[in-house]
Amino acid sequence: MYSMTAEKIARVLCGMLFAGASDVSASRVVIDSRDVEADTLFAALVGARADGHEYLETALDKGASILLVEQEDAAQRVADHPSIVNGQASVIVVRSVFKGITGLASHQRDLMDMRNDVTVIGVTGSTGKTSTKEFIASILSSRKNVVATRGNQNNELGAPLTVLRVDDRTEVLIVEMGMRGKGQVRELARMARPHMGVISTLGTSHIELLGSREEIAHAKAELFRELPESGIALYRFEEDFRDILIDAAECEKISVGFDRAANVVLDNVICDEQGCYQARITGPFGSFEFSLSVPGEHHLVNASFGIIIGARLGIDNETLKEACKHATLSGMRFARVLDEASGLTFINDAYNANPTSMAGALHTFAHLCTRGKRIAVLGDMLELGDYAPEAHREIGALCSSLSIDTLLCYGEFSAEMAQAAQDAGMPYVYHFELGKIDELCQKLAAIAQPEDLILLKASRGCALEQVIEKMGAYRAC
In terms of Cα–Cα distance, which of 23, 21, 41 is closest to 32? Predict the structure, then answer.
């Protein structure tokens, strides 16, 4: 955050400077007392599992300079703290800490416009928005000072906290925008006010809430509707509903894809033994070959968004090419984990799942080189509504058509997946009810052999990554 005094923050938020010095300042905003250090504003957010007002003393002891609270009795409780009495800290009382955070972020965004030295990029999509955001951030970081959404903190709290991480050194801000319903992307975009917008894919995530993929396209297109006329809208050419995206954007539009009709074209695609891809990219910036160290053909498009934006920001092709080679993703996204004791290799892609990402992971998994068996451990794909049974059957049928030796299914809807795979003639298929993770691990330990490759993929609610830890114990028995 640009440094601001307590007096200025209280004025911006229409709050009351309850105690302490008015001239103390803060250049960071945190909601977790464990993250507090000097020059920090600690926002005492009231959450489902914790109330920040219980940690005010801890925050002051760790050097917080400003406390933002909504409970006046809590402010009174810490008014006699040495940091406040000695003029080293202050307490501001507002009607809502949550609204205080968003209000402060909106003010910060106004200051960014006044300075005109930060390019803001908004990223959304049904599938791959976090991976796309991370590719863009990783590629641009080769030459720019970048602030980007951490993990998947892409909601109405995470997005303003991301804006508040901008400081005097920041050149690029990347805000990931999640969605739980219609209008949410619009609200996040109005807060972040991006100059460029990226829509990764239009899949079936949120179909339970919105009813159809067409409605999902309209909801995601809210990002493009909020872009200025001077902005840039980037999207995949191979989208069923790309016309909805095109109509929503009243600015420059750039499509990326494998079709020669796309504005930026990918061709000469090659896959290595580890499932990592290289391709040639051709666009207004010229043409060059680039390679990725992250498995999955779909990441070629994700990385291309970073290349296009990087070129627009003046990064040369050779630097972009090298940045792609070293670009990485966060944990539980097709991460290779070797259990040296057992000789098993896990592909941990258990962060989340929907039909599009599940199919992509399976295709990539089926092309990975291995001396042993390919074993897929797949869990439920959630938030699909009435489409859930059909979606799980489609994935089961897909497993039977790929080079996958054994399928273990976990959860309520995955029973449909298992049945479809068996009906299609897949010989080694097992199903385990939700909560029976120990039984799944016992079976996996019995059939897995050294050099086998094991894919873990499911929605976050299944917490399928725990299989890796549990397997060590079961194989030791």
Answer: 41
What's the rounded Cα separation, in Å, for the pair 308 and 125?
A: 18
Reported residue count of the chain is 477
How high is the mean pLDDT of the chain? 93
pLDDT digits (tens, 9 = 90+) for 393-442: 999 999 999 999 999 999 999 999 999 999 999 999 999 999 999 999 99
Share of the chain above pLDDT 70, in %: 97
**Please, is 31 exposed, middle or buried when counting C-beta atoms within 10 Å of its C-beta (0-12, 13-18, 19+)?**
buried
Sign of the dihedral through C-alpha 409, 410, 412, 413: negative
Q: Please tell me whether residue 85 adopts helix, strand or coil conformation.
A: helix
Q: Determine the residue type at 111.
A: L
pTM exceeds 0.70 for this model: yes
The more confident residue out of 470 and 103 is: 103
Written as six digits, the tokens of 468 are 């890796």
Answer whether 322's CB lies under 8 Å from 139's CB.
no
Please give the Cα distance from 355 to 353 (Å, whole number).
7
Measure the CA–CA gap between 111 and 91, rounded to whole angstroms.
24
Cross-strand bridge partners of residue 291: 278
The C-alpha atoms of residue 316 and residue 320 are separated, in whole angstroms, by 6
pLDDT of residue 476: 45
Residue type present at position 297: E
Residue type for position 246: I
Tell me the three state secondary structure of residue 34. Answer: helix
Q: What count of other Cβ atoms lies within 10 Å of the Cβ of residue 70?
A: 22
- Average pLDDT of span 433-456: 94
Q: What is the dihedral of CA 215, 220, 221, 222, to 10 degrees?
A: 110
The amino acid at 137? A
Phi, psi of 476, deg, nearest 5: -80, -20
The residue-averaged pLDDT of 158-169 equals 97
Tell the residue number behind the tokens 């205080």, with chain if given. 100
Report which of 438, 468, 431, 477 is spatially closest to residue 344, judged by C-alpha positions: 468
At residue 477, the pLDDT reads 40
Residue 207 has pLDDT above 70, yes or no: no
pLDDT of residue 204: 66
User: Which strand (E) or helix (H) includes residue 454?
Assistant: strand 453-457
**How many other CB atoms are there within 10 angstroms of residue 258's CB atom?**
16
User: What one-letter code names the amino acid at 393?
Assistant: R
